Amino acid sequence: MHNHDIFYREYTRWAEHAFFNDPEYATVKAKMSPAELARKMTNALACGSASKDGAIVKRTCKELKIPYTYKAIYAFLNTPDEAEEAALNGALSHARDS
Whole-model pTM? Predict the structure, then answer.
């Protein structure tokens, strides 16, 4: 499983918790589901275009043992899994041999 998916699932879990236990999320809850928020934030953090300043991001990072910095979050979300890395290395090797 790709780190992006791992982060998304953990973020969704904490978003569900926040939506039902934290009144600060009432406005967001009225506009989107926890999964929609998780997808939007995970994608934005992976692109480096979202703020990490929120309880859900902080809890997600803590649970996944990711340092709570933009650099660490970005690196985690953009690290290829083993299958992707093997495919990329195979493609590069094939290109060099051609």
Answer: 0.81
